[in-house]
Inverse folding.
């Protein structure tokens, strides 16, 4: 049985077996207590070894980190804080661990645990984080399935830089010795795909194609950005969820984003309460209250114009100047969410010049129908927009952005045949996890983080 199931037993059990890894061993003269964890929950199962049992000496000397198979009897525990304990009859040491095992019983810093990313899933915090990650992945699919959205797998290798920010990782089979690796000197026709390709920065463009056939779709997959920003919110490889809806505008997009985030938070509250209590106590005090509030209260909405005015009037100083036309920096986002509205905030209608080419131009000719959802502590968690569905306007926007319309002829085709208003967004899955767990560094919510200089595990 798994430990989580054992700990929820409703009656004693005369015989059962459990496998797991040793968290701690407390040796006494006649009795040894072993705390066993198998990752199914935060709690350990207390295994009691009695010196009269066969093979006691070997079992009692297993090391922290050892893998055990324990057979025994489940009885009510006299100890405080646990309802059951397993009185072992037979213990098999499947794999012992020596005294060098790095996860000894003490609190390790997250920096240290990152350096042993192969072992950190066995630490309490990371057990809780990765259970949450798994549970919320499931919740993503159940949300969209309940609403009839089609799940699309968009390509990882692509010739298109959707965001146009020049942050694509190159994919190439050309010999590395072709000097110098300057784009202009490379004949991409010689390459595997016959053109310049890279790892996707977003599945949106292909998502739009599917939305104009299936109406409502979503993607959920790995996304890559070679942005050399060594921050606590950026990873070179992250997971993004991108819904796309035909026959929808920016207001519909915001409604979906709000419903989605609420659903995920509600799911975490209802299904992961043990791990959330741990985060609330150890990582972010007040976390559960914050999530309960988010699950019920309406999100605030503000245009970019208004946001800039609020920032200009702020009684605090900012490192980066605030001016209409400049992108909001994380300090601005934090001020707006933490000081101005005290919760999640949609900022809408950004200047066209700082947003991607595909966003729909507003009637004022200088802003686009875009929205970013900002949350306290994390900042931007969602970026979305209504898409430009008017062929001529889109072609003009592409020219302005320096994109050759001929390269995206397939994308323009859906504006030629059956074009319709449509909108979507991208939620950064790791940023969601940071918000829901209170973890402060993106490196600590993804199993094996990819950041500049870091691809070891
Ligand atoms: O705002 P972004 O760049 O939007 C897009 O990619 C659109 N194509 C989405 C769409 O409309 N379908 O990215 C969306 C979200 C951000 O709000 C952020 O949460 C996350 O993706 N994100 C990152 N997360 C971790 N590391 C990075 N380097 C990230 N870049 C973006
Ligand atoms: Mg964005």
């Amino acid at each position: 049985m798994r430990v989580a199931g054992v700990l929820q037993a409703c009656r004693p059990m005369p015989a059962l077996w459990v496998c797991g890894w040793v968290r701690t061993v407390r040796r006494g003269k006649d009795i040894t207590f072993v705390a066993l964890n198998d990752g199914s929950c935060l709690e350990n199962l207390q295994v009691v070894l009695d010196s009269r049992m066969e093979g006691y000496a070997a079992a009692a000397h297993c090391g922290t980190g050892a893998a055990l198979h324990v057979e025994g009897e489940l009885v009510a525990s006299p100890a405080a804080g646990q309802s059951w304990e397993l009185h072992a009859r037979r213990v098999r040491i499947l794999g012992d661990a020596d005294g060098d095992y790095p996860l000894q019983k003490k609190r390790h810093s997250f920096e240290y645990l990152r350096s042993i990313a192969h072992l950190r899933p066995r630490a309490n915090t990371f057990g809780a984080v990765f259970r949450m990650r798994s549970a919320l992945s499931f919740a993503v699919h159940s949300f969209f399935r309940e609403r009839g959205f089609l799940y699309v797998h968009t390509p990882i290798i692509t010739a298109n830089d959707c965001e146009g920010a020049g942050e694509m990782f190159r994919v190439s089979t050309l010999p590395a010795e072709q000097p110098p690796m300057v784009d202009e000197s490379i004949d991409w026709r010689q390459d595997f795909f016959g053109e310049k390709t890279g790892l996707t920065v977003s599945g949106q463009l292909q998502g739009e194609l599917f939305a104009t056939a299936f109406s409502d779709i979503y993607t959920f997959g790995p996304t890559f950005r070679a942005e050399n920003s060594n921050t606590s919110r950026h990873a070179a490889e992250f997971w993004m969820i991108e819904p796309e809806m035909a026959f929808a505008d920016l207001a519909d997009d915001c409604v979906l984003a709000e419903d989605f985030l609420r659903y995920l938070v509600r799911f975490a509250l209802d299904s992961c309460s043990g791990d959330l209590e741990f985060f609330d106590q150890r990582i972010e005090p007040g976390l559960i209250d914050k999530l309960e509030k988010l699950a019920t209260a309406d999100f605030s909405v503000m245009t970019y114009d208004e946001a800039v005015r609020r920032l200009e009037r702020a009684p605090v100083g900012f490192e980066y100047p605030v001016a209409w036309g400049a992108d909001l920096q994380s300090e601005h986002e934090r001020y707006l969410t933490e000081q101005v509205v005290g919760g999640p905030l949609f900022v809408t209608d950004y200047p066209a010049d700082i947003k991607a080419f595909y966003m729909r131009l507003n009637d004022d000719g200088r802003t686009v129908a875009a929205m970013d959802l900002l949350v306290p502590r994390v900042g931007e968690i969602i970026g979305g927009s209504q898409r430009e569905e008017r062929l001529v306007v889109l072609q003009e926007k592409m020219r302005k952005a320096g994109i050759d319309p001929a390269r995206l002829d397939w994308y323009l085709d859906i504006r030629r045949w059956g074009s319709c208003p449509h909108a979507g967004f991208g939620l950064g899955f790791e940023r969601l996890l940071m918000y829901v767990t209170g973890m402060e560094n993106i490196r600590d919510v993804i199993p094996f983080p990819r950041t500049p200089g870091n691809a070891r595990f």
Remarks:
- The two ends are 31 Å apart (CA to CA).
